[in-house]
Each structure stands twice: as structure tokens, then as C-alpha cells.
Design goal:
By secondary structure, this protein is an alpha/beta fold. The chain has 6 domains: 103 residues, MutS, DNA mismatch repair protein, domain I (3-Layer(aba) Sandwich), CATH 3.40.1170.10; 141 residues, MutS, connector domain (Nucleotidyltransferase, domain 5); 136 residues, Orthogonal Bundle (MutS, DNA mismatch repair protein, Chain A, domain 3); 87 residues, MutS, DNA mismatch repair protein, Chain A, domain 3; 212 residues, Rossmann fold, CATH 3.40.50.300; 81 residues. 46% of the residues lie in helices and 16% in strands. It contains 29 helices and 26 strands. The strands form 5 sheets. Strands 3-4-2-1-5-6 form a 6-stranded mixed beta sheet, with helices on both faces. Strands 11-10-7-8-9-12 form a 6-stranded mixed beta sheet, with helices on both faces. The protein has a 6-stranded mixed beta sheet with strand order 22-23-24-20-25-26, with helices on both faces. Strand 7 and strand 8 form a beta hairpin. Helix 7 packs across helix 8, helix 14 runs antiparallel to helix 15 and helix 27 runs parallel beside helix 29. The radius of gyration is 38 Å and the shape is elongated. It comes from Anaerotignum neopropionicum. This is DNA mismatch repair protein MutS. This protein is involved in the repair of mismatches in DNA. It is possible that it carries out the mismatch recognition step. This protein has a weak ATPase activity.
Length: 873
């Protein structure tokens, strides 16, 4: 180490504390990386790998990026899953004695990134903490970019499944956990399902006493009672562990995280991983695209804040009829008053994402443009408040009353920041003239200095007779006199040559140097003072973070409500009746996504489910006829109603459901070593173990992944279990190709048969897309295969084989009838008077029959003859 250069010694000392990070080491105008960090960064960023002398024979591998454009490079590394430690110069190099002091000011991870280039503005960027103990689990989630922080705990037997469901809901960018959870089989299951890497942090930070102290200290409180965390041991452990991790990586810049909210899953409708995927709430199943999802249909928000809130609403349907009604009434008013809605939209369009701007303000990374954007957004709040005063619905009136106009913040930024500020905060040009007296003094000196330079240039031209003589400036040489090559012979002797270029010479004079010192001194002071003023303004804004965040929330609610109203009007949706009852009744319901995708006439269908008469609907019909669409649209209409949105129907009455379960489609889970059928049975098991009589079940083709008799048996037993009110008794739509299940109507209480209407046209079929009472007789598989485009030869052969199998099936049935008839006749024969000659003759005839050798027609004919003889006796 004695031979290593002092700068590299400093590097190694800092790197030792950030071994798992790529260290961006500030050297002048560049962030440099060395050794393994340089090898990784040069490959991932495709930048040149060089070397640096460090006191050893071999040069240290090195690469670097300019500090002013580092955000883009950091974003690319974070997107690839790396952590980046930002090491800055923490003292002025001009005042440093020896090596400039440096320290890490922030660690950027996938869950703590603030760069807009990385973040999806319409989606929260969560970091999640999972705490595991023998008693249960705790979860805490935070969006550092907005300041949202929440926690909960699960202490029940089914806690593991709930952890999976919550992770699916939050879809975090990063997950941390304690060692106990890392060793839990659930961690491996989550890694397989979601491809997450778990950061195992110091488990002592999850210790209850330590975690509690971390929370109390950060929020400056004496007790946890105000957060609803009293006796919530697992939730406190998770929240405290996450908060410690954030404080360590963000270096205490977390003032915008002003509270922690305790929530329970009982506040919202629970949606498991499969249901979220199958219903395609926020993305499609196959391509993972936003287009084609329910969110794509409903999101007509005008702000990024509103878009994020609307996404939360879609993922967390309400269970309170009162809260649902509040939203519905607000949507109804905006739906009926077009002018009101358009005025609100016009205001919202001009608002920036000031929720995330405030995060950058807290982290002191916001520049003058960010503050100007914040000012422009706040500028619209008084007008928005005035518009909302016209509202009559309770929810919108409540929002209007709580909306803060933030005039003092607007006034401060308006008076201080110029209209079009520069990107950098270190080069001046941000502060308005007249805002700060000292700055104005320096500015005047700079302006006069410009005049002095112009006067000197005019004087030198006159003295030398060189008409194109110019006085210029750059950062390297300062001010200098520039004379073209053709006029060098006329340069005065007292001019001191400074630099020779291809087409000119550059000179200085004592007079010019003296003047430059005055001018440049004022420019340097202007930059210094402007930065100090800007920092004070930014800190003043940061002090109002809670007020600004709450205004951002109100704006997002108004935006989400107007979005629902906009979609309702454009798509002809209707306001549903939502109550605590047990009826789901929809007249002429439509699938919101399919209807928008096809942009044509969607065939609507009714649905009626209740607790007594029609609790379970068995739906039969061919593939592609619309069974899955019908069932999914029912689930989506219920979900839309419970998020406070109008629904695609002529009328709808929705009794609140606690959960929506779906089992649709087939897929392998190769990562978990599970076959298609195993995945299907696992999902069915989850439904049967967790559904209640208040749940809505959407089941499609249960039992199709195994042999016919096994599958039919399983499907039959599942139906019986669901229909039994002592077991579950949930409202259910059950699609199947097992026509035998239609026999359950009349045998099981609340079971009704429905089918998709199909019109036969010779060997072809037409899907009518209408649901009707009764069961289907055929599956029309060959016809569907023809529509799918199978080669004609395959279709013809399929038809031939189908006829043979059907004929064989009929033969078996006829022979079965004949055997049964023979058995019945033999049994009857035993009762015949043995002394009757005719009776004995009939017995002889029956005993001589070879039933298995008969054709169905022969068997029936023989049975008919025997019957005539018996009647004639």
C-alpha cells in the first residue's frame, strides 16, 4: 500500500465499504471507475477501457463518463440490476490541502432510482421488504420517487399465499429480506415465479427493537400508536428494516417519506397471482403489453400522478359500498357535465409530475427547471379549486375543500427563478434580477465589464489600425486579443503572444489582464451566490413537502375520476348499483377490452347469479364460441364496479364480492418443475381452500389436463364442493366440455345449465356469441379446427374418424341396453311360474340368445318379439 498513489489509496478505502456496488469516483469533470468496476462498466455501457498509473507496474483498468451526462449511464446500469455508489468531491478543490475529500453521497439501486429516463411515469417504482419469523410475515413497500410508504403483516396459516399475492400486486423493482426469509422455501418459489433477486441485509436491522427505534427516530415521534402499528411486531420489523436500508443508501435524504401507513388486505378485494394474470388487469398474458389490458381501456388520465393512482385502484378494488358509492357519484357528475369535465382536463394537461419533482427536491437533485415546472403546476391549483366549487357530489366537494392553492410556494419561485432557466445549477443564469441585492451588484459589475471590454476593443482597433481585431474569452485563457495572420505585422510590441493558431495569433496585455480580473471575479461571485440562493429556495420548498404531496394526491384523485367519466361516455358505460347483497345481475353486458379491440358490434349477454336459485352456472359450447370472453367480462364488470367505475352494460346490480378467483387456460411452470395439469390442480386447490360464499369463481375447463374419466371425476367433485353451501357456496361460472356435467342441474341446489348458441350450416358452424339456457350437445371440435386453418386433408380425416368413434359409441350403448334387457328378462324369468309351458319356452329362448353377437337392430327386434309373447300370455 505504501507504493500506491494517495488518490488510489482514497479510492480503495471508499470502495471497501461498497463492495457490492459499482463506484462512480468523481475526478474533476468525470466519474471514473477502476479495476473490476471498470471492466463491468466498459462492457455494459460500451465505453472505452483505458488504464491509469497507481503505483504498481501494471496500470489499473479504468473507464469514465462525464459527470454532466452521468444520469443516462447510471440508468442503464441500474436497469441491468447493478447498484451504483456515487462518490462526490465533498470539498472545494481550490481549498483542499492535499487530496480532495470524497465520500459516497448516495447509492442508486433498482428500487431507489429517481431518474425519469428509467422510471415509468405511469407506474409506481416500489422497493419491498419481506420479514419472516416463526409467527408470520411482515411486508413493507416504499416508492422512493413519490414518498409513499406502507406496511402490513400476515400471521395466518395461509400467510405464504398472501405474500405471493402482495408481491404480484406491488410488482417491486427490488426486494430486501432478512436471513430467515432467504432460507424459507417461499423465497425460492417467489424467485421462480417473479425472477426476483433478494438482497439479504443485516438481519439485526429487522430486530423489533432496532426497527422500532429506526421508525421513531425518522418520523420524530415517541410512539407507534399514531401509525396503527401498536402490537404489529412483524409489520414494524419489515418497515424498520426497509427504512434503515433506505437511510443507508440514500444518506438520510428521506424527508419526503413523512408517514408510514398500516393497511390490511381486508380493506380491498384480494386478487391472487393467477387472477391478475388471467384477467389481464394491467398487461396482457402473452406479450406483457399494456395495450389489451383493462388499464389500457380505463386510463384516460391527463397527469402521471393520476395514472399511477388509477393503476392502484384497478389493482385494489374496494370492499366498502360506501366508499364505492363516493367514487361512483363523483364519476356520475363528471359524466353528465361535459363542460365541467373538459375544463378540468384542460387544467390537468398543464400540470407536471410534481409528486416526483418533490422527491428530487428532497434529494437535492432538482434543478431550476424542476422548480419552474413545480411553479407552473401550482399555478393551476387556484383555478382547479374554483372549478370544483361548482361540484355537487360529496366526494368532489370534499376534494375541493381540502385542495391547498400553495400560493406562498408559487410566489417564492415566481419571484426568484427566471422563466427559462438553464439545466445546470452551477453556471448561474437562474435567479431573476431584483430578487437579491448582493447578486444584483455583481450582475451590474458583469454588465459594465462587458461594456468595458467592448470599449477596449474599439480603442485597440483605433490604436493599431487593425479593423478585425477582437477581444474574446474562453475558460482556458480567459480574455485575450485575437489578430488574424494577415495583420500580425501591425501588432504593437507591448502585446504579449499567448497562443499561435493556424489562422490567427492570440495576445494579452497588462491592461486587459487587470480588466479581466475585475470582470471574471464578478462572474465567479455571481455563480457562487446564485447557487447559494437556489439552494435556499429549494430547501424552502422541501420544507413544504407534506402540503405539496397532499395536493398531488387530490389532483390525482380528480384525474382518475375524470378518466372514468371520459371512458364511460365514450364507450357507453352505465352506472352500476353496488350494495352488500348477494346478487350479480348484468343486462346486456360487454367485455370492455374485446369491445374496444374489435371496434365493431360486440354481442352483449346477460348474467344473473344469486345465492339461492342460480348460484353456479355450468356453461357448455364449442371452443372459440365465446365462453371465456363471457366469463371474463363478468369478472371484469364486477371488478370495475368495485373500483368505482361505470361498467359496459345496459344495467348492472353488483353485490360486493370479497375475492375473484379465475382458473383459465393451461400452462407449464417449468421453473417449479410442474406440468400443465399440476399447475391447474394447484390453482384449483388455492381456490377451494380460500374461496368464501362472497367470492366470485371463474373456472374454465377444469380437469382437461388428464384422462377423460379422471378429468370428469375431478370436475364433477369440484362442482359438488363449490355448490355445497356448507363447503363454499360461491357464485360461480363453470365452463366445460364435459357434457355429462349438465346432469347436475336438478341434482344440486342452485346449479343451472347454459350454453353458447351455435348455428349449423351443413358441415360448417356460425358462432352466435349468445348465451342461452340449456346444455350443448356437441363440442364442434372438427369445425373449430377447420376455422383455425388446419389442412383440408386433416379435417376430412378427422371427420371420418369422428364418425367411426360415434358409431362405435352408439353400438356400445345399444349392446349395453340389450345386455341390461337380457339381465332384466332373466331376472323376470326366475319369477315365472315353472309349470307354465309358454313361460318355459320363453326361458329357453332367452337362454339360447347370444346377445354379444347381435347387431343393435337384431337385439332390439328380438326384445320386441319377446315382449309381444309376454303380453300375449
Amino acid at each position: 500500500m505504501a507504493k500506491i498513489t494517495p488518490m488510489m489509496q482514497q479510492y480503495f478505502e471508499i470502495k471497501e465499504n461498497y463492495k457490492h456496488c459499482l463506484l462512480f469516483f468523481r475526478l474533476g469533470d468525470f466519474y471514473e471507475m477502476f479495476f473490476e468496476d471498470a471492466l463491468i462498466a466498459s462492457k455494459e455501457l460500451e465505453i472505452t477501457l483505458t488504464g491509469k498509473d497507481w503505483g504498481q507496474e501494471e496500470r489499473a483498468p479504468m473507464c469514465g463518463v462525464p459527470f454532466h451526462s452521468a444520469d443516462g449511464y447510471i440508468a442503464r446500469l441500474v436497469e441491468k440490476g447493478y447498484k451504483v455508489a456515487i462518490c462526490e468531491q465533498v470539498e472545494d478543490p481550490k481549498l483542499a490541502k492535499g487530496i480532495v475529500k470524497r465520500d459516497v453521497v448516495r447509492v442508486i439501486t433498482p428500487g431507489t432510482v429517481l431518474d425519469n429516463a428509467v422510471l415509468d411515469e405511469r407506474k409506481n417504482n416500489y422497493i419491498l421488504a419481506v420479514y419472516s419469523s416463526q409467527a408470520g410475515y411482515g411486508i413493507a413497500a416504499c416508492d422512493v420517487s413519490t414518498g409513499e410508504f406502507q406496511t402490513t403483516e400476515f400471521m395466518s396459516i395461509q400467510a405464504a399465499n398472501k405474500i405471493l399475492d402482495e408481491i404480484a400486486r406491488f410488482s417491486p423493482a427490488e426486494v430486501i429480506c432478512n436471513e430467515a426469509f432467504l432460507n424459507n422455501p417461499l423465497a425460492k418459489e417467489i424467485q421462480g415465479k417473479f425472477n426476483y433477486y433478494f438482497n439479504d441485509i443485516d438481519s439485526r436491522m429487522f430486530d423489533f427493537a432496532t426497527a422500532k427505534n429506526t421508525i421513531l427516530k425518522h418520523f420524530h415521534v415517541q410512539t407507534l400508536d399514531g401509525f396503527g402499528l401498536n402490537k404489529k411486531l412483524a409489520a414494524v420489523a419489515a418497515a424498520g428494516g426497509l427504512l434503515w436500508y433506505l437511510l443507508e443508501t440514500q444518506k438520510n435524504n428521506l424527508d419526503h417519506i413523512s408517514t408510514v401507513k398500516y393497511y390490511t388486505t381486508g380493506d380491498f378485494m384480494l386478487l391472487d397471482v393467477s387472477s391478475r394474470r388471467n384477467l389481464e388487469l394491467t398487461e396482457t398474458m402473452r406479450e406483457k403489453n399494456r395495450k389489451g389490458s383493462l388499464l389500457w381501456v380505463l386510463d384516460k388520465t391527463q397527469t402521471a400522478m393520476g395514472a399511477r393512482l388509477l393503476r392502484k385502484w384497478v389493482e385494489q378494488p374496494l370492499l366498502s359500498a360506501k366508499e364505492i358509492q363516493k367514487r361512483l357519484d363523483g364519476v356520475e357528475e363528471l359524466y353528465t357535465d361535459l363542460f365541467l369535465r373538459e375544463e378540468i382536463k384542460d387544467i390537468l394537461r398543464s400540470m407536471y409530475d410534481f409528486e416526483r419533482i418533490m422527491s428530487r427536491v428532497i434529494f437535492q437533485s432538482a434543478n431550476a427547471r424542476d422548480l419552474w415546472a413545480l411553479k407552473n403546476s401550482i399555478e393551476n391549483l387556484p383555478q382547479l379549486k374554483h372549478i370544483l366549487t361548482r361540484c355537487k357530489s360529496p366526494y368532489l366537494m370534499e376534494l375541493c375543500q381540502k385542495l391547498d392553492s400553495l400560493e406562498n410556494i408559487h410566489s417564492l419561485i415566481e419571484q426568484a427563478i427566471v422563466e427559462d432557466p438553464p439545466f445546470s445549477v452551477r453556471e448561474g443564469g437562474m435567479i431573476k434580477q431584483g430578487f437579491h441585492a448582493e447578486l444584483d451588484t455583481y450582475t451590474q459589475a458583469k454588465e459594465k465589464g462587458t461594456t468595458w471590454i467592448q470599449q477596449m476593443e474599439d480603442e485597440e482597433r483605433e490604436k493599431t489600425g487593425i479593423k478585425n481585431l477582437k477581444i474574446r474569452y474562453n475558460k482556458v485563457f480567459g480574455y485575450y486579443i485575437e489578430i488574424t495572420k494577415s495583420n500580425i505585422k501591425d501588432a504593437p510590441l507591448h502585446y504579449i503572444r499567448k497562443q499561435t493558431l493556424a489562422n490567427c495569433e492570440r495576445y494579452i496585455t497588462p491592461e486587459l489582464n487587470q480588466l479581466a480580473e475585475v470582470i471574471l471575479g464578478s462572474e465567479e461571485k455571481i455563480v457562487t451566490v446564485e447557487y447559494q440562493i437556489f439552494t435556499e429556495i429549494r430547501n424552502a420548498v422541501a420544507a413544504e413537502v407534506e402540503r405539496i404531496q397532499y395536493c398531488a394526491y387530490i389532483v390525482s384523485v380528480v384525474d382518475a375520476l375524470q378518466s372514468f367519466a371520459e371512458v364511460a361516455q365514450s364507450m357507453n358505460y352505465v352506472k352500476p348499483v353496488v350494495d352488500e347483497g348477494d346478487i350479480i345481475s348484468v343486462t346486456a353486458g360487454r367485455h370492455p377490452v374485446v369491445e374496444k379491440m374489435i371496434q365493431g358490434q360486440f354481442i352483449p349477454n346477460d348474467i344473473y347469479l344469486d345465492k339461492e336459485e342460480t348460484r353456479l352456472a355450468i356453461i357448455t359450447g364449442p371452443n372459440m364460441a365465446g365462453k371465456s370472453t363471457y366469463m371474463r367480462q363478468t369478472a371484469l364488470i364486477v371488478l370495475m364496479a368495485q373500483i368505482g367505475c361505470f361498467v359496459p352494460a345496459q344495467a348492472a346490480h353488483i353485490g360486493i364480492v370479497d375475492r375473484i378467483f379465475t382458473r383459465v387456460g393451461a400452462s407449464d411452470d417449468l421453473s417449479a418443475g410442474q406440468s400443465t395439469f399440476m399447475v391447474e390442480m394447484s390453482e384449483v386447490a388455492n381456490i377451494l381452500n380460500n374461496a368464501t360464499e362472497k367470492s366470485l369463481l371463474i373456472l374454465d375447463e377444469i380437469g382437461r389436463g388428464t384422462s377423460t374419466f379422471d378429468g370428469l371425476s375431478i370436475a364433477w367433485a369440484v362442482l359438488e364442493y363449490i355448490a355445497d353451501e356448507k363447503q363454499i357456496g360461491a357464485k360461480t361460472l363453470f365452463a366445460t366440455h364435459y357434457h355429462e356435467l349438465s346432469e347436475l342441474e336438478g341434482k344440486l341446489s342452485g346449479v343451472k345449465n347454459y350454453c353458447i348458441a351455435v348455428q349449423e350450416m351443413g358441415e360448417d358452424i356460425i358462432f352466435l356469441r349468445k348465451i342461452k339456457r340449456g346444455g350443448a350437445d356437441h363440442s364442434y371440435g372438427v369445425q373449430v379446427a377447420k376455422l383455425a386453418g388446419l389442412p383440408p386433408k386433416v379435417i376430412r380425416r378427422s371427420g371420418q374418424i369422428l364418425k367411426q368413434l360415434n358409431a362405435a359409441d352408439i353400438t356400445k350403448k345399444a349392446k349395453k341396453i340389450a345386455v341390461e334387457a337380457q339381465e332384466q328378462a332373466e331376472e323376470a324369468a326366475k319369477q315365472i311360474d315353472m309349470f307354465s309351458i309358454k313361460e318355459n319356452q320363453m326361458i329357453d329362448e332367452l337362454s339360447k340368445l347370444d346377445v354379444m353377437a347381435m347387431t343393435p337392430i337384431e337385439a332390439l327386434q328380438t326384445l320386441f318379439e319377446l315382449q309381444k309373447k309376454a303380453k300375449g300370455m
